[in-house]
User: What shape does this take?
Amino acid sequence: MKTGWALTDNPFENSTRGSHMKMLHLGQFTLSALKSQISDPFFLNLYDYLKPFEQNYKAAYNHWQGNKGDKKGKTLGLNQLLKKLSNPVISDWQVKVMIHYGKNTGRYTALFPKGTKPFHNGSKAERLNAVGVLSQTIGTDTNLAALKTEVDAYHEMLINAQAGQSRENGALAGKSNEVEKLRKELAIALMVIYGNLVVLYAERLESIDHYFDLENLRDKRQKSFTRTIKPGLSKTIIKRTFKLTQSLKIHNTGHTDLLFCVRLSKGMVCETGFIVKAGQTKINTAPLLGNLETEKYLTTTNNGTEVGNCVVTLL
Assistant: This one.
C-alpha cells in the first residue's frame, strides 16, 4: 500500500487529527470492506473486533453534533430575550415609570441614570445586570409594584436562559473530549486491522489497498513553502504542530543568513533555533527549532542587511 507511511506512525490517527469527518469515512470504509469478506472466519474476526470501535465513535460524534444544535437553540433563546429587552420591553417599562415620575424628576433619574442605553448596549452580562439593578432600585416603591413584578420575571427568564447556555457549553466540552478519545481508540483499532492484514498479505502487500480509504489517509496539506524576508524582520512560515521525529529541509536561496525557530505567535523574532547560511541547504529535526509543545509558529528571522529568500519543505 503506497501511502508513504512511517513505520512508527499511526496514519489513521495522524491523518484524522482535527477532522472527525475524515475518521468517520475511514472507519466506515474499512468496516464495510471487512464485512464483504465475513464468510471467511479470519475476516469475520476482524469485523467483529472493529465494529464496536466504529459504532461507539459514530454514536458519540452524532450525539455531540446533536447537542451542538441544542446549544445553538439555547443561545438563540437568550439572544431573542435580549432583543426583546431592547425593543419593546424597556420602552414599555419606561412608559410605566413615567406615569408616576417624569423624566426630569430625581426618582426617574435614579431608575434610569444612563437612560435606556444599558438595556440596548454592552455585553450580554451587562444588559442582564441592568435589569437586576432596575429591580433593586424600584425596591418597595408601591407606585411601581406591578412593574417590579414584570422586571423580576424578565430578569429570571434571562438568568435561566444564560444558565442553560453555560451548562450546554460545559456539556459540549465534555462530549468533545469523549469524541476525541474515541477517535484515537478507533485509530488504534484500525492499526490492529492493518497489522493483521500485513501478516496475511506479507508477500503481496498491494492486496491491503482494498481495505482502506487511501484517498482520505494521504496527508494533503501543503508541505513546501517559499518565503521572502526583508532585512531586520521576521516572517511566519506556517502554523503547525511538529512531532519530535519530524524533519525539515531548508534551502536558503538568498544572499544572507537566516535564523529558523518556532514561536508562540505570528511576527515574533527568533532568538534561538538554528541558522541556515546563504546558499546552503540543510535538513534538521524539528526539536532544534525550539519548544514544540507550546510554540507552533515556524518562523524565520533575517538579521542581515539584504533581502532573504528560502524554501522550506516539511519531510
The first strand starts at residue 113 and ends at 116. The first helix runs from residue 11 to 16.
